[in-house]
Amino acid sequence: MTFPVVGRLVDAINAHDLDAIAATFASDFTSVWPAHPARSFDGPQNVRKNWEFIFAQFPDIRIAVTGSVESADEFWGEFHYVRPGAADLRGVIIIKVRGDEIVESRFFMEEVEEGAVPHPMPGVVR
Hints:
Elements: H1 4-15, H2 18-23, E1 25-32, E2 41-42, H3 44-57, E3 62-70, E4 74-82, E5 89-98, E6 101-111
Parallel strand pairs: 1-6
Antiparallel strand pairs: 1-2, 3-4, 4-5, 5-6
């Protein structure tokens, strides 16, 4: 990974280390959820609160980056969140980096559907 801060973040999440998680984010960090705007928030203190809540709900959660593309200051990663006892999450997170800190994350994450579900677009065949 060209951006060691992303590797540190993944390691900190998998270690459930709240201090190390918060330390990867800049003081002016912004979390954006384009499809779910009410989930957006600012600041590393809110990142910490968010993960504290997640760890309480899913004490065995683990994450992995399953694919990625990097540019000058962005990491586009495909993430897989394994939440034992609940649906997995999969999706893309676009992480903007400044120096060795994360300044913005744009989340496109969804729960993985179980079983066969109808295609959401009429006329499209699998």
